Amino acid sequence: MQYTALPHHDRASLLRGRQLAAAAALLAVGLQLWGLYRVGGPPQPSWFPNADKGEHALGFALPVFLILLTLAMRGVDWRLPGSGTRVLVVGVFAVHAVASEIIQYRWYRYRTGDPADVVADWAGIAVGVLLFRLVVQRRSRRAAEGLIAS
After folding, report:
1. Domain membership flag for residue 77
2. pTM for the full model?
3. Is 3 a member of any domain?
4. Is 107 a member of any domain?
5. pLDDT digits (tens, 9 = 90+) for 75-117
6. Domain total for the chain?
7. Using CA atoms, how far apart are residues 76 and 33, in angstroms rounded to an integer?
8. How many Cβ atoms are within 10 Å of 91's Cβ, its own excluded?
């Protein structure tokens, strides 16, 4: 659904928002890569067993969410990325989850590949996609209510 053209300041605001989302996505991917491929693993507090699973989930949820958000913020309104694009983003991160654990297992002396980490990564991907869907649905509902009110 196309809406009427936005005033100049609204278009500038949307462009700024997209640039911020893109920068945040790049930062999130960079932090994810650092976390997965640093030489030593994360510290494990004795009072919180398997704390790294939360880090894995967040490390995959945040980049997936931000990349999909950046892709949705094209033009003067939000558009849901095509299904092929969404599948590509999810697929790249799902494959990367497995590849990172294999790399840690094969080539890192002080790291181990853990199948439970892959499950946490995949759960994070699912959370990122669901959060993105919620944001887009909420924004779409708000835009539709704005059209009805005017």
Report:
1. yes
2. 0.84
3. no
4. yes
5. 666 788 999 999 999 999 999 999 999 999 999 888 888 999 9
6. 1
7. 32
8. 11
